[in-house]
């Protein structure tokens, strides 16, 4: 009886210890976020190498700290890797069901990995999952070799894509972010740019919020994949993101979050520890949601209050509609200037969706443009239409 009591007491003690440890772990980020928020009383500040917060829709800067300072970014490099992969899927170059044979080079990668077997065939979708969820270096290299023929060719594609996005302070050396003898760097602003670009790919969201999953290899071996982005569980509204860590880069994260119709992207580079990087990102999000508002000028499909004359049609005037929601994120209390850029007249025929002009929104010296389109087909006048018009004038 005494032995049973001892065993029961021991089990109870162990349960309490485990639960307490779990509670402590779950509260760590929360306490760090509170500390960040308390420090914002006299103006928002971060304690990391660099940080950047932007409006997802327009890319407008909401907060900046050493945003153009070059720094290694570790596995956040995989944001660009994923961008090129999803572009390949959307163009038809790659299918998620396509089988990829893993090379010796890919399977031998260190750091975070999904422990791929060399010479085995894996579905592209499973490798993508490994990159997005577990930051798998072996999967990133396997995908890179498949898309560009070699890691070196893929790196060239990465740098070309960076230039096309306006990432002028970035240089990639590999598709993983692992330490390299070749110089590699980026900035908080540039990482923010490629994060926004990644979030535009619908396929990304098939993987972004997977928390943990057991992956079965072709051999039957099982590897548990766990998401490195803790914000998807700890921050309400987080849509996805990517972490990174090396000795030189320190702790990094770039993520997207949405609340009450406001969608922002936060990037943190060079935090001292993991909980601090997440706390800094949460602080950036909180700052954005508390201090900015979404100024909606015109809803998608809504007609503006100006019309355009139409020639060569029985329809004499038409009123264009907004192609998308015309809105910008601005500081609480600010206002915007709205102008419509329209031609004096247009000629029929006009098809539904044809661009007619633009809405120009100006805020703090920056200009944002949104297309205005036709909401219906406007045919050219026939000979009978012209004769009817003439007859009506007699």
What would you note in describing this structure?
- This protein is of the alpha+beta class.
- About 35% of the residues lie in helices and about 25% in strands.
- It contains ten helices and 18 strands.
- It has helices at about 1-40, 80-90, 105, 125-135, 135-150, 150-165, 190-200, 230-235, 275-290, 385-394; strands spanning about 50-55, 60-65, 100, 120-125, 210-215, 220-225, 240-245, 250-260, 260-270, 290-300, 310, 315-320, 320, 325-330, 335-340, 345, 355-365, 365-375.
- Strands 2-1-9-8-7 form a five-stranded antiparallel sheet, sandwiched between helices.
- Strand 8 (about 250-260) and strand 9 form a beta hairpin.
- Helix 2 runs parallel beside helix 7.
- The longest helix has about 35 residues, at about 1-40.
- It is globular and about 85 Å long.
- The N and C termini lie far apart (about 115 Å).
Number of helices: 10
Runs in which pLDDT lies below 50 for 5 or more consecutive residues are 1-42
Write down the overall geometry: globular
Mean pLDDT: 90
Instruction: Return the string of H and E elements.
Output: HEEHEHEHHHHEEHEEEHEEEEEEEEEH
**Which structural class do you get from the secondary structure elements?**
alpha+beta
Q: Could you tell me how far the N terminus lies from the C terminus, measured between alpha carbons in angstroms?
A: 115 Å
Q: Report on the biggest sheet.
A: 5 strands, antiparallel
How much of the sequence lies in strands comes to 25-35%
Strand order of the largest sheet: 2-1-9-8-7
Helical percent range? Answer: 25-40%
Tally of extended strands? 18
**CA-based gyration radius:** 27 Å
């Amino acid at each position: 009886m005494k032995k049973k009591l001892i065993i029961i007491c021991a089990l109870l003690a162990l349960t309490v210890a485990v639960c307490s440890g779990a509670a402590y772990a779950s509260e760590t980020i929360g306490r760090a976020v509170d500390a960040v928020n308390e420090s914002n009383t006299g103006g928002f500040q971060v304690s990391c190498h660099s940080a950047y917060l932007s409006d997802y829709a327009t890319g407008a800067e909401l907060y900046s700290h050493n945003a153009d300072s070059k720094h290694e970014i570790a596995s956040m490099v995989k944001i660009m890797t994923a961008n090129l992969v999803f572009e390949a899927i959307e163009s038809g170059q790659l299918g998620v069901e396509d089988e990829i044979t893993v090379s010796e080079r890919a399977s031998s990668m260190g750091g975070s990995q999904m422990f791929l077997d060399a010479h085995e065939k894996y579905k592209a979708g499973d490798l993508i999952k490994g990159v997005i969820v577990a930051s798998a270096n072996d999967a990133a290299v396997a995908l890179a070799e498949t898309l560009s023929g070699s890691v070196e060719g893929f790196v060239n594609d990465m740098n070309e894509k960076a230039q096309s996005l306006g990432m002028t302070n970035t240089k990639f050396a590999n598709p993983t972010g692992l330490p390299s003898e070749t110089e590699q760097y980026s900035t908080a602003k540039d990482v923010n740019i490629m994060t926004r670009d990644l979030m535009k790919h619908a396929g990304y969201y098939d993987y972004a919020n997977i928390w943990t999953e057991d992956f079965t290899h072709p051999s039957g071996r099982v590897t548990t994949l766990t998401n490195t982005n803790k914000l998807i569980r700890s921050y309400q509204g987080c849509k996805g993101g990517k972490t990174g860590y090396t000795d030189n880069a320190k702790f990094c994260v770039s993520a997207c979050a949405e609340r009450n119709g406001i969608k922002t992207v936060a990037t943190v580079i060079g935090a001292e520890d993991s909980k601090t990087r997440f706390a800094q990102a949460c602080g950036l999000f909180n700052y954005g949601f508390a201090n900015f508002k979404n100024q909606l000028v015109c809803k998608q499909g809504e007609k503006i209050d100006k019309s355009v004359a139409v020639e060569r049609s029985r329809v004499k005037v038409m009123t264009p509609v907004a192609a998308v929601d015309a809105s910008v994120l601005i500081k609480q209390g600010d206002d915007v200037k709205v102008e419509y850029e329209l031609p004096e007249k247009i000629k029929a025929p006009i098809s539904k969706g044809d661009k007619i002009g633009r809405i120009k929104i100006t805020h703090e010296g920056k200009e944002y443009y949104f297309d205005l389109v036709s909401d219906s087909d406007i045919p050219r006048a026939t000979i009978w239409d012209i004769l009817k018009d003439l007859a009506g004038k007699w």
